[in-house]
Structure formats: C-alpha cells, structure tokens
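Me: Here is a favour to ask of a fellow structure person. Could you put it straight underneath, so I can go through it closely?

Assistant:
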Amino acid sequence: MTFADVRRIALALPEVEEKVTWDTDLTLRVRDRIFAIGGDAAERVSIKASLEQQAELLEMDPDTFAKSAYVGRFGWVTVDLCRVDPGLLESLIRDAWRRTAPKKLATTLDD
C-alpha cells in the first residue's frame, strides 16, 4: 500500500478534502477536521482511532502499528503502509472518517 492508496480511499468518502499543514504534511479532513495525516512519499500514515482500537492494533501487530507522535495519547495510530493488509487499512480509514464526521453525515456512509 502507498499514500496514493490512502488518498484514493479517503477521497472517495463524503466531503473529504486535502490540506497541506505544517508546510509538509498532507492532512485528510472532513468538514475541516483531520482524520488522517501523511505525505506523497510517506511510508507511514497516522490515522485517528479510539484508544481501544489503538491498543488492539498494537497488540495484534506491533511491527505494523505504533502510537502516533503527539496525538497517540488520544488514540491515533501510525500505520506502516508496506506491511498493512489493504482491507484493514480501508476499514481503519473509514472508521476514522466516521469518528471525525458530524453524526448526521457519518450516518450517510454504508458499511
């Protein structure tokens, strides 16, 4: 998987926009709220998750998942794109979008 795959998955979700932040990071947002952070040549992406989901991922595969710098205490997880299962990555991105989108908008996304 690559960051291009992350962008493709995320941009297919309702009302997602990209915004360059901190001069280097490409943030993926829904209604200006960030749910994923990476970059064009990035080998890793940070994705918003719950603390419980983060703990499960770290226990399941600590070589693929890690607590994100700065925001890991809120549940964000850093994903190694070379190692992650494509289906799991898509699920994580969709969950992050749902967690970030306003409730009414989040209900528009089919499972």
DSSP finds four helices and six strands in the chain. The beta strands are 16-21, 25-30, 33-38, 44-47, 65-67, 77-80. Residues 91 and 111 are 9 Å apart (CA to CA).
